[in-house]
Write a structure and sequence with these properties.
The chain is an alpha+beta fold. It has one domain: STM4215-like, CATH 3.30.2000. The chain is built from 2 helices and 6 strands; from the N terminus they run αβββαβββ. Strands 1-2-3-6-5-4 form a 6-stranded mixed β-sheet. A hairpin with a 4-residue loop joins strand 4 and strand 5. The radius of gyration is 16 Å and the shape is elongated.
Amino acid sequence: MSKRKSILVALADKLKTIDGVAYTSNLSNNAYPKLKFWDEVRDFPCVYSSAGSEYREYLPGDFTWVYLSISLKVYCKGEDSQLELEQLLEDIETVIDANRVLVYDAGTNSQTTEILVNSINTDEGLLSPYAVGEIVLQVRYAR
């Protein structure tokens, strides 16, 4: 499996810990390392992730930093879906902050150096009774 895919899988596994016990929201294990559009989603709330562009910073000593953009699509549905979305976005941020260094390949002990939130966007209630949000992450790891 590629590093890009491995990072998505490891991140989805961490997001599955949003279980309503230690967090406000409960994802019920609905976090996936793939992309699905809101009209295809059947289980709510849920998070789908996709790897975007990456760029590299070449340094002396044959060392390279890789900066990978990851998009998290967050979907909620219900009577108060905007509130549910906002709470879920906060819970996702908490998980990201707690896992900035994320082991994505236990066999080689490969891990990210940092994961940062670049932006958070929502549909602002336009799709009611649905609510859609997006978190864009920047992941840095060594090549």
